[in-house]
User: Fold this.
Amino acid sequence: APATPEKIAVLCHTGAGGSGVVATELGLLVAQAGREVHFVGSAVPFRLSGQRGLQGPYFHQVGGFAYALFDQPYPELAAANTLSEAILEHGVQLTHAHYAIPHATAAIHARAITGRSRVVTTLHGTDVTLVGAEPAFRHTTRHAIERSDHVTAVSHFLAEQTREVFGTAREIEVIHNFVDAGRFVRVTDPAVRARFAHPDEALIVHVSNFRPVKRVEDVVQTFARVASEIPARLLMVGDGPERPRAFELAGQLGTLGRTHFLGSFPDVQTVLGISDLFLLPSSNESFGLAALEAMSCEVPVVAARAGGVPEVVEDGVTGFLVPVGDVDAMADAALRVLRDRALYLGMGAAGRQAALTRFHPDLIVPRYLEAYARTVQG
Ligand code: GMT
Assistant:
């Protein structure tokens, strides 16, 4: 088998979002596997902070550049420049770009500048289904996909969608996301749960970046229906543009007293570990990493049947899937799980089992290492 490159750069979004989380967790595991990993970004990635020991990965800050004549700081050009430095100074052999635009574009640019370093691009969704398909970016996105040395997608749905939207015949390898099942576990200490709910209350949770695609108002509507039938509380974890509307709607529906808006924080496993049900009503989701993290914590998932979610959440086994926007169906499914202890426990156990088998890092990380190896040989 071809050898995995020794030095790998990672380009990703650094804020709260599944792609940056996957990029970070993968980069850390690749570093643990003995490779030298160089994160390149405008900030330390969301979940990387605090995780860098002496042997840990490098972080190269992409500088901003403000000049009176320029109306923009041109961060992609700065990223290509910083990455070129890492390639030239450290001998980086391969760049793993998470997202076609802007990261694969910057990586392809750095490859052209240096005449070295191969590019593996992982598609996560928003670059294909939302932003990349916009006429303003179509050609740039297609170019990034076609000129990468290897392309992966986080679900079969996304691979198919990419071929359809961009009319490309490019080979796209599907590598599902993974979850650290050692960290994402059930929290059994009743004192932790008691901070948020009484023992007789069902604890429902939603985690996202509150963009319109997440349909957070559906979470609030669903919760109102559930809470009118059984004692329950809602934890809203994350932050983003739709948070004020969700807050206002909870006020209108009279559930604000039973809803906690916890804001954004990286240690989401603590909250998932004490929850009874995860709601994911997104209208589009190429994978749904947050749902997988919940499953790992033995939390059943009720989600909208969108995009790649059915590849993660098995309807009737690890949760229930309902049509997008159908809050009545979502509430019925939630009540079904929460009222039937055997079903609740069975779905939680099945979710954990899926995390330990189909989505375990031991299964997924070697697939990336093999892809890296093939790419530097090819
Ligand atoms: O949708 C988000 O919250 C963020 C977004 C991102 O790009 O960071 O997530 C995308 O990538 C995740 C990791 O692969 C997937 O789990 C999400 O489903 C995907 N989001 C969408 O497709 C909308």
